[in-house]
Amino acid sequence: MSESRDFWQDAMDHAVAVARKSGEMIRAAVQNQDRSSLVQTKSSAVDLVTETDQKVEQLIIQSVKRKFPTHRFIGEESVSSGEPCVLSLDPTWIIDPIDGTTNFVHGFPFVGVCIGFAVNQQVEWGVVYSAIEDKMYTGRKGRGAFCDGRPLQVSTQTDVHKVIVATEFGSDRNPDVVDKIFRSLRKVLTLPVHGVRGAGSAALNMCSVALGSVELYYETGIHVWDVAAASVIVTEAGGVLLDTTGGAVDLMSRRIVAANNKTIATRIIEQLEVYSPERDDRLPE
Ligand code: LIP
Q1: Which tens digits make up the pLDDT trace of 114-148?
Q2: Residue ranges in the chain assigned as alpha helix (H)
């Protein structure tokens, strides 16, 4: 009896292939030193976008459209150019062509090509390709999470004083926001915890949680394209996703906590100051 085709697996396999091709473009730009071509700014003077971000996103979207013409897209640079950011019930590819653009511009080697795939508003699978490290992270609901084919498992640590926490300072330099970030960071650091780290990429911070080398990542100000792909990699590695309030995660809320377990998540969330940037799925004025 012929097995019914696993269309979502076909889509995931395509995502892995186009993520690798995107990584070749990114490495070429880094090696040719032309990564700073067309560095523009978006929401702030430090929220950067480059020609390579735009070229990679177009490569991914055009490649997917040829194979899956009815599917929808949420792409970081497409949304920046005015496309709606709507997560419908339809099969939707959620794309960050270069997560860690500032790292890319500066040659700091942590940049992730992120491709998440949602159906009925639930992320079915995610692919995060660490292009400079040449590491392919994948996760699919109910099928596990992997790095270059090796299974991923979160840390078993339950003592908050023995964890590494990852977070970022983001791109909002409003002094009130910066003060909130530092108040939370001070409370986390003085618990104390073993250390605080930041890769400069939400997705690669989350992959470190899935890898077990970081116990928890939190951030307010990220976007759905930064975290959608890595979200299922974390949960398939045995981790948990929460909102910074401790409630259920909402990938459009621009707030996230990805942790190895609820015990650690609860202890860190107690230290965090909750605030609400404008949602990703805000209605146009
Ligand atoms: C980045 C995120 C990071 C955040 C930065 C930026 P980008 O994504 O991965 O967590 O702190 O402000 O949003 O813009 O490089 O795709």
Answers
A1: 999 999 999 999 999 999 999 999 999 999 999 99
A2: 7-31, 51-67, 76-80, 101-106, 175-189, 202-211, 224-236, 262-269
11 — pLDDT class (breaks 50, 70, 90): very high
Q: Which of the residues are catalytic?
A: 76, 96, 98-99, 101, 226
Binding site membership of 261 for ligand 1 (Cβ less than 6 Å): no
Q: Is residue 111 domain-resident?
A: yes
If asked whether residues 191 and 61 sit together in one domain, one would say no
The separation between CA 19 and the C-alpha centre of its own chain, rounded to angstroms, equals 14
Please provide the DSSP assignment of 41-109 as one string.
ESSSTT-EE-HHHHHHHHHHHHHHHHH-TT-EEEEHHHHHTT------SS-EEEEEEEETHHHHHHT-S
Same domain assignment for residues 145 and 212: no
pTM here is 0.96
Q: 251 lies in a domain?
A: yes
- Residue 21 near residue 27 (C-beta atoms within 8 A): no
Residue pair 225/216 in contact (Cβ under 8 Å)? The answer is no
**From the CA of 143, how far away is ligand 1's center (Å)?**
28
Q: Are 114 and 184 part of one and the same domain?
A: no
